[in-house]
Amino acid sequence: MKSNIDEKEETKIRLMRALVEKQDPSSKEVDDPTLRRFLRARDLDVEKASGMFLKYLKWRQTFVPNGSISLSEVPNELSQNKMFMQGFDKKGRPIATVLGARHFQNKLGGLEEFKRFVVYILDKICSRMPPGQEKFVVIGDLKGWGYSNSDLRAYLGALSILQDYYPERLGKLFIVHAPYIFMTIVFVQDKKLKSTLLEEIDESQIPEIYGGQLPLVPIQET
Q: Reduced to 3 states, what is the DSSP secondary structure of residue 121?
């Protein structure tokens, strides 16, 4: 017996499919689970999810015109030998392991090759998912990671690709062997921003931009 949530999603998928197929006929080749991931990434807002999905299709046709990234397109990234495919977790999600200390800024192929490498990785991981599974797990190992491995443009590029074109794919990211300072970092969901801050900070001391009562004060004025 289907739940109300399932029925609601199926209705939204039908609406979304009609909308995107009208604007891009190639959408007919895309399955329902893919549309569902884009819908969930936009809180089941059909219009926003459709815009996100159509942007993905356009990107895919341009960035991966042959349907996949070949090894010959990412030689410098592969030479660093930093990405590995493992088994599966207890939920059946494929596991990938990345050794952060082996990543260095790609001075030969540049940022574009790195982005191609990210797509190569994500496509490879997704191809290993068993039927009914849509997410994967990553173990990020920072042992030996230092300043020479810092590559902000690459990190942001990877995050953008994952967020914009592979929504609802990352099931969990384990950061291991992290510097101690990382233990004090708390990542907060937008929808839980104020409630999370209120656990540690009084509302009168929370900045207004986060739902509190305190105006931002430039440091030079304090």
A: helix
**pTM given for the model:** 0.86
pLDDT in tens, 8-52: 999 999 999 999 999 999 999 999 999 999 999 999 999 999 999
Query: Is residue 163 within 8 Å of residue 37, measured between CB atoms?
Result: no
Laid out side by side, the sheet with 94-99 consists of 83-88, 94-99, 136-141, 170-176
125 Cβ neighbours under 8 A, 6+ residues apart: 85, 94, 96, 136
- What are the tokens at 127? 């191809």
Q: Which two tokens stand for residue 116?
A: 């191609």
Total H helices, total E strands in the chain: 7, 4
CA 58, CA 27: separation in Å to the nearest integer? 11
Residue with tokens 């409630």: 195
